[in-house]
Amino acid sequence: MRRDRNAPAGLVHTHWLTSRALEGNLPGDPVERRIDVYTPHGSSGEGLPLLVDLVGWTAGGPAHTNWKNFGENVPERLDRLIATGAMPPVVVAFPDCFTRFGGNQYINSTATGRWDDFLIDEALPFIEERFHCGGNGRRGVFGKSSGGYGAIMQALLHPDVWAAAACHSGDMGFERVYLPEIVGLLPVLAAAGGIEPWMKSVFAKQKIPDRDIAHLSMLGMCASYDPDLSAFMGVRLPIDLHTAELIPERWENFLKWDPAEVADSRGAGLGSLKALFIDCGDVDQYNLVYGARRLVRTLTRLGVAHRYEEFPDNHSNIDYRMDVSLPFLSKALS
To answer: What topology is assigned to 11-173+259-333 in CATH?
Structure first.
């Protein structure tokens, strides 16, 4: 629902990309992917910076272009911000990266698919060739939750590709975020007879309860960070199924993908960005603020310029924070 009915409306263009990077993924997710692209009112997108929106778990990119009750979808938000002069015009892409696990971490996995390759090698050229936007020094990435994780990891892995990034409440500080949830999986899996029968039972349900979705997301994290090609959909847990003790070599595979850890070795590369925005609610119910503080401490030690904000809220319904990040990114790229 539009907050500013007088703001000239941009256009949302729907395209489809058939990916080779996603071929052979173990969940059997489709390789044909929808990408919605927003262009501002009166513009074809040519010559404008490009922002890529990575959505959080349980959603795909087109969820952010869909009608939204009691609030704006992202194109409506962009219309308002551009019309008021809060931000310059930009093109924004919304790739659909949904999986059977319920979401995505936007990294390469031998189980869930080569999502990093999909973004860098396929989606970016596909968008830029059609809209003549973006290009070196003119690309930014942003997202919230798993999308925030994707944004900061993309920047850490590819500071030569992205020139700006915004991480809203991104997954980091894995021991505080994932381990309690993974331990909570054990009695559920035991009652079902294991990972495979539990997942099959969930996929067979006409209505999947929220708690099952939360459990499924943890199995998705396992398949993303520590895949086992011999296991059902590549899923194995980093803990002993009987005692809940950590399996060190498996947990180490998780930590290789924790931004709070990765920043120690790759954080200096973020110094090439034109803009780096990080925020988190100070009462985030998933304890993400502690990982954010660790990341920011490392960036400060490395002398990497960034903007960090803690705001008085939790993890839920915080799209309003894009009113801060999107102008920050777009001004840096324009």
So the answer is: Rossmann fold (3.40.50)
